[in-house]
Amino acid sequence: MIRTLLRAPQGAGEVAADALRVLAAISIVVAGIGWGPLSGLSFVLVTGAMFLPRLLGVRPSFDIVFGVASLAAAWSSVLDIYITVRWWDLPIHFLTNGIWAALAYLLLVRFGIVADAATLPRPAVSAALMTTALGLSLGVLWEMFEWFGHNFIDGEIYVGYTDSIGDLLIGGVGALLAGCSMRYLAARPGVAHDREPSPVVE
Which residues does 117 contact at the CB level (< 8 Å), separation at least 6? Predict the structure, then answer.
């Protein structure tokens, strides 16, 4: 995976994804100077997370969507768009929960923590269920973070029962959609994926 991370980008898609990572790094400085250290720190975390798709060698299209969604979510928070446009967090939760759940699933599979759905009797169903479960779990963690932020960091962070349930619901739908698309998302460029899994030697 380190070799994948360090190699030069190949094709326009990978160049675009790397450009988004550069934009995220620039955002650390811009947000830190313009909106304070906490805003800068949020982009440090986003920038680090945006290297995960490259580390895993996912499709450039997935990498680009991950980068765009992560940057949009972070800048929406810094610019208080979630407060001024109350419905805006719904499409953001739908998109980010889906792609983060898909990435979490790929990470867990790559490190051998969960089974690769392709090796199971019902691969499509298994991937969809696992990704949805991960998406809902990530959604709960995010709502806990928002509660913590509201109570201990910034009281302007909006929290509420209806808002939390709506966010979890729409995020779960996004994760389900990502799980149903996992056959495409899990495929690595230039690698055949229709072969049967190698038999297990007893």
Answer: 109, 123, 124, 126, 127, 130, 182
> So where are the chain's domains?
13-79, 82-188
The rounded distance, in Å, linking the Cα atoms of 188 and 178 is 16
98: helix, strand or coil = helix
Q: pLDDT digit string (tens) for 113-144?
A: 999 998 999 999 999 999 999 999 999 998 89
- CA–CA distance, 142 with 157 (Å, rounded to integer): 12
Can you tell me the distance from the alpha carbon of 17 to that of 68, in angstroms, rounded to the nearest whole number?
9
In whole angstroms, what is the distance from residue 70 CA to residue 51 CA? Answer: 12
Q: What are phi and psi of 41, to 5 degrees?
A: -65, -35
* Amino acid identity at 155: G
Percent of the chain with pLDDT over 70: 87
pTM to 2 decimal places: 0.83
**Do the beta carbons of residue 142 and residue 65 sit within 8 Å?**
no
